[in-house]
Amino acid sequence: MSLSERAAPVADLLPDLVALRRDLHAHPELAFEERRTAGIVAQSLRLLGLQVYEGIGGTGVVGTLRCGSGQASVGLRADMDALPMVELGQQPHASRNPGKHHGCGHDGHTSMLIGAARQLARTRAFDGTVHFIFQPAEEGKGGARRMIEDGLFERFPCDSVYALHNWPDLPLGRAQTRAGPIMAAADRFDIAVCGRGGHAAQPHHTPDAILAASQLVAQLNTIVARRIDPGESAVLSVTRIEGGHSHNVLPAEVQITGTVRSFDVASQDRIEAALRAACAGVALASGTEIAVNYLRYYPATVNTPAEAALALEAARATGLEADMAPRAAFTSEDFAFMLQKKPGAYLWLGQGRAEPGPDGERALHHPCYDFNDDALPLGVRWFCEVAARALGRA
């Protein structure tokens, strides 16, 4: 069967996939709450005759499709969860669940992988085993890690794993990836600066937690510039500072929260050590007590070279304009946990519209974001071509 013959039937799937995607968008579910979504996924896969397994890592679903006599196996992964934010879009399929919004396009990823399962189930254009991995809780809750801890790769052996993410910064029809890091490690820090509190007119009676916190924020913003090699990349951002309730009261405590993004463990180590040292120094100088909670919640997403090359070749074979990404992104992705266990690659699939709308619908995590349905067949074809190239064609 030629490439054009394999790809053409995808168009037949498009109306159903658009309807599915918009239904998922209208019914977003948060991390480890994706019961409706997981149920739709499981039922869709069962109708195709796949072996279906539910409840993996909480609400994860895996569907297995075997064809031919090949012993090789590949994992294709999509994420299912939404974001805890209010949707402001006005589409008919806008969120019906208050405070929940598919603002990152996981509704599109899930629909594309279901479409790939439908296409591969009817063409059988591969020789081996495909595991369709539908993962919960990508948005900061580590659903990939939970699935792995629940025996994902022992129960469903994969020689390699692949995933994609819609990328509004790239135009529709473009795709990028790269060998090595493609997404950053994500750390979170929470700092409590504690004094005793007191009257604002008598600051000599208490350590000033607000002044100490202000000095600390200024120091934290020098860490990357002065502790990290200028040839490397890292970001430290303070995103919240909170303390005090009255104009004439010095608060007993100030809270500081922020994030660190980097691409290698050595940089993580240096930044965390410098942050803790800065806190200790400010505490000593100000007479406050400073407690630090530092969480490394996602590692860097690191593609293996051969699989990154396969991902690009598959994209070109399906008609996408695909090239090497010039640099990694500072956003994070918990597919990183899967790539720590297995060779694989993560692809950015362009979905940018010709003209950005005034409501910012192209931006990920924007309250008006909506997935571009024109990207659905592109993702389906890419997943199918990856499977064929990773396993060999039947």
Write the layout of secondary structure elements.
Elements: H1 3-7, H2 10-26, H3 35-47, E1 51-56, E2 60-67, E3 73-79, H4 106-123, E4 128-135, H5 143-149, H6 152-155, E5 160-171, E6 174-177, E7 180-183, E8 185-194, E9 198-199, H7 209-220, H8 223-227, E10 234-242, E11 249-250, E12 253-262, H9 265-286, E13 289-298, E14 301-303, H10 305-317, E15 321-324, H11 335-341, E16 344-352, H12 376-391
Helix pairs in contact: 2-4, 2-12, 4-12, 7-9, 10-12
Fill in the keyword field for this structure.
394 residues, alpha/beta, 4-stranded antiparallel beta sheet, elongated
Describe it for me?
The longest helix has 22 residues, at 265-286. The radius of gyration is 24 Å and the shape is elongated. It is built from twelve helices and 16 strands. The chain has 394 residues and is α/β, with parallel strands linked by helices. Helix 7 runs antiparallel to helix 9 and helix 10 (305-317) crosses helix 12 (376-391). The model is unreliable at 1-7 (pLDDT under 50). An eight-stranded mixed sheet has the order 1-2-4-3-5-16-6-15, with helices on both faces.
